[in-house]
Amino acid sequence: MSSNKSSPSENLGSSPSAQTPGTTPANGKSTSPNTDVELKSMRPDAPKPSIPLGEDIMQLARIGEISAMQNLFATKKLTANHRDEEGITPLHVGLSPFLSMRRIGFYVNQWAAINNQYAMCKFLLDSGADVNAKGGESVATPAMWAAQRCHYYIVNLLLSYGADPLLTDVQGYNILHLATIDGNAFLLVLLLHQEIPVDVVDQQGHTGLMWAAYKGYPACVDLFLRWGANANAVDEGGLTPLHWALVKGSLPSVLKLLEYGADRFAKTRDGKSPETVAQEMNTLRIWNRALAERGFEADGTQKPVPMGLASLVRNKSLMAKFFFLWPFLTVLVAIWMLSNLPILLGLPITLVTLFGMQYLAQQVANRGPSEFRILQKTPYLAGVFAASLFWVGFRWIFQVLPVFYSLTAWFYIMAMIGDPGYVPKISSRNQQREAVKQLFELWKFDEENFCVPCMSRKPLRSKHCRRCNRCVAKHDHHCPWIDNCVGANNLRHFVMYIVSLEIGIILFVQLTIGYITDLPPLKDAQCSVINDTLCDYVSRDAFTLVLNIWIILQLVWVTMLCAVQLVQISRNQTTFENMRGHSIDRSLPSSQAFASAMTAGTTSMDAAGLSAVGQGPNPALAHSHGNRRRGGCLSSWSALLGIDTFFVTAKDGLRDGRSLNPFSRGVTTNCRDFWCDPAPIFGKRESGAAMLGGEVVNYNEMYETPLRMHAGRSGDGYRSVAGEEPEQMV
Question: Where are the domains of the chain?
């Protein structure tokens, strides 16, 4: 076996400015080194007598012929520790069937090859194969071969048989380095739970974090940092992970390193700071953007905060309150100006004032906590909703009549501050290790069943929210208008809130029209643009009228949101499932094939042929970070206002889709489950609890798809259908 791995130091010399093959040239186009492991050609230099297949131990290991291998061992001609002239054992070759087939383009029997691979390796280990035998040009162990191709089910098998994760190959790389070079976060999770020192170095002093930063794998960078890796470790050349991230030009990696306190002024042995490296590698734009998003000036110093308010501006709790309350003043100022100034003067002044207040809020965000750099990621939008609700209520209570206002306010507050159904985290690393072990035993260690950020098993219909940094049971969506996720616990509050809001807006408009009509006309009222009749009504109570217009504008998208949620209730479908296409039934062959794909080291849903099952990027795998859909301002507002979801729902119509959605029990049952849920509306409910088919289930503890069993007229029951193990699917 030969390896084409390229060390960062080998590629860049003593400093990142060197431009040798496998580095980032000055034009900024990365030509990262090839890290594939190739099987060395086994053709001899001179013709040798052919070996019968039944006696060719290497070929039997490659094709997975366990019975023939068993017969070969029974004759005692060869053993499981047989080595060829390069020291390669059958256990090494047993890892390669799928790899060989991919090299020559055969995909027909790939799943059988994967399963034979696992079964053959287990048979060889049971037959006494040396799990730590080194062979090939790279002098690597079987575990290293498996790690290079992300066969982490095989890696787990080898580790269980005593494979030493700290052994190194001829280049000084241990299994953690090799796994990092490929960039699979799930394999790193497995290895880090083997008590491998997180900052173990290779021959050039590179840690796993440096490799992850150099290769541009932000998911792996995040995992290493959360595991306690040293963000300021230095290699033989004095380069830190931040230097290597700038060599690659990975913005997410640079941002994450700055978040964990990477030294912005660290210098290499050649005296080069991160800024110098960025200039030489043509990634200065990435460096400046990362500094700006983390609240630093272009020279790396902290952005100054005037009037000695630094401690307040950088306090996350205070800033959250500021961004929530700031729209209260903004909405009041805008409505007051429009209702008290002449229209030709009031409109431009209002627009300029709103822009100024928005600009001020953005400047505060730029100097505040790093996660508040973008206003949409702050409670600002929730404050816009709350401000509208407050001023409508203020006017309603003191000028009109309170009808649906109290209900709307109650459900809004409950949806905003309530627990959406956070899946309990596993706090102990021992418990995390047990969860990983259990998933390996079930052949379900993949992104559908395990959350790398939470380091815990994912229940059905749950999703990790990057804003909340938690997995949410029966995740619907993260709503910026309530600054909270919508999930199993608060979905009903959210729906009742928008329904109450819809009815309340309609009633408010009707009542304010009657209220303004009954007011006495203002004598000598004059308007410069509108006619006398409209001027007469505006002059009676301009504040309420302008507020009315603002509320009517919100009625448009609130109506769309109500329509979407009510249709999804009838389908027992979440917004995430609606936009994704449909929920994944993990008992279907596609999901089992996915587990097999991960066994073979396939880190892409497209490569596994499953792009039709789930659309969008896979955040758990570092290879998928480049697939995100990009859009401009229009697409952002379309998502914020729910327009895209509305059109997707309208396109599907009222189609039940039970063939695609294993949770649907028909329109009538789905609606009854939601509206007749016995959980208290005005009290605290059990986390993750919901109704499904007339029965109470807990989505925090549901790991298998519940399928309805028809038992004659005795009623319906539920059973969990677990998929067969991939090694038994041949």
Answer: 329-421+490-571
